[in-house]
Amino acid sequence: MNELDELRDWDAGAPPLDDDTRHRARVRLFAAMNDEPTARVRPLWRRPVLRIAVAGTAAAAVAGTVLVAVDTGGDETARAKPPANSAPSMRNVSARAVLNGAAAYEREHERTVAPRDDQYIYTKEIIKETEQRTGAVTRHVDENWRSVDGSKRSWVMEIGRGWWSEPLKENEGMWPPQDWGTLRKLPTDPEKLILSLLHKTGPNDKNDSLDEITDEEWADIHFSLAGLLKLVPVMPQGLRPAAYEALGMVPGVKAVPGQKDAKGRTGVAITYDDPARQGTSFGGHFIFDPRTYAFLGFRDTRTSGDGAKTKTYTQLSYLDSWAITDKVKQRP
Q1: What is the C-alpha separation between 262 and 299, in angstroms, rounded?
Q2: Measured by CB atoms within 10 angstroms of the end CB, which terminus of the chain is less buried, N or C?
Q3: Which string of DSSP letters, residue by residue, matches 32-87?
Q4: Do β-strands 311-325 and 161-165 pair in parallel, antiparallel, or remain unpaired?
Q5: 3-class secondary structure, 302
Q6: How far lies 177's CA from each of 109, 249, 293, in Å?
Q7: How far apart are CA 241 and CA 229, in angstroms?
Q8: What sign does the dihedral 111-90-189-27 (CA atoms) show?
Q9: Residue 262 gets which letter from DSSP?
Q10: What angle do CA 33, 45, 43 make, to 5 degrees?
Q11: Residues 94, 99: Cα–Cα separation, whole Å
């Protein structure tokens, strides 16, 4: 059993539940939606909301604090040079074409980053929530400091609330991984990345061909790729483009044009209908620039409260900036 298999079998802890973050139960629900009584339980994401995918990864080799302003596809420089496979109309564009375009854009704009194990990855995320019944809008600024190697406690925020995330204990793990060492072990070839996410059930279950993947396994693969893209803002070079291309290979992903992002820009969204569960949508919307395929932001819904007090929110989010810092809660 390799390290990735062991990681998937570990138990992931989570912060205490409250009314405003009950939607984290969606993660557990997805793992429990199998009809067979022997269906295996998937590892839980430690962060409670399936919320954020990240714009073009841009960084530099660092010795101290480095701030990176994230390009979210709104500048004229990015728009002046669309990828070769860009189409004038998004009406009939395929999800795979969009995600391949996003991978091409990412590879052209990403830079290498080599954080030290004793440093932290700082991210600043902007979340705009609209309460669907009243139309009331709330803006949150979430700042996170994650330990590069996972050996120190991290500061994590979710829709304006923060908590200390302690280092994982022995025999604990999470998906997606947050420590740089584990992320570096993930394949940067999209097909190999998909195969690495498959659960190995025995010596005769080699999972060495995409043709052998079942609908249920594809659903789990989507679950893993979406979590990786949403919840890991900074990745080793080549991993995010590979994850975009791998997501484009998943049956059930589709492109939805004419979607607004948090800044009011119109883009094309990528969402997912689960073929194994009669088209059940899951995982929110990744929104891309319709010409350059630069990532713009993410859209999802969340609920809070019970019964008559239940509130439903439309949530739009994007990564504002990120940096490598020497200390937790050190701002660039």
Answers
A1: 8
A2: N
A3: H--SSTTPPPPPPPSSS--------------SS-EEEE---S-SHHHHTS--TT--
A4: unpaired
A5: strand
A6: 24, 22, 26
A7: 10
A8: positive
A9: T
A10: 60
A11: 9
Angle at the Cα of 9 from the Cα atoms of 7 and 11, rounded to 5 degrees: 90
- DSSP labels, 112-147: -----TT-EEEEEEEEEEEETTT--EEEEEEEEEEE
- Using alpha carbons only, what angle is made at residue 63 by residues 68 and 161, rounded to the nearest 5 degrees? 50
Could you tell me the end-to-end alpha-carbon distance of the chain, in angstroms, rounded to an integer? 41
- Residues 285 and 52: their CA atoms lie apart, in Å, by 10
Q: Would you say the pTM of this structure is higher than 0.85?
A: no
- Residue-by-residue pLDDT tens, the chain, 332 positions: 454 454 444 444 444 444 344 334 433 333 333 333 333 334 444 433 333 333 333 333 333 445 555 555 444 334 434 444 444 455 678 999 999 999 999 999 998 889 999 999 999 999 999 999 999 999 999 999 999 999 999 999 999 999 999 999 888 888 889 899 999 999 999 999 999 998 755 555 566 789 889 888 999 999 999 999 999 988 999 999 999 999 999 999 999 999 999 999 999 999 998 766 654 455 689 999 999 999 999 999 999 988 888 999 999 999 999 999 999 999 98
Rounded CA gap, 156 and 101, in Å?
31
Residue whose C-alpha is closest to residue 302's, from 284, 318, 287, 288 = 284
Report the half-sphere exposure of 289 (CA within 13 A, side-chain side).
26
Q: What is the spatial distance between Cα 56 and Cα 70, in angstroms, rounded to a whole number?
A: 7
Contacts of residue 82, Cβ cutoff 8 Å, sequence gap at least 6: 291, 292, 293
Instruction: Give kind and range of the element (H or E) at residue 314.
Output: strand 311-325
Token pair 């939607």 is found at 23
Closest CA to 265 of 229, 303, 292: 292
Q: How many residues can be counted in the chain? A: 332
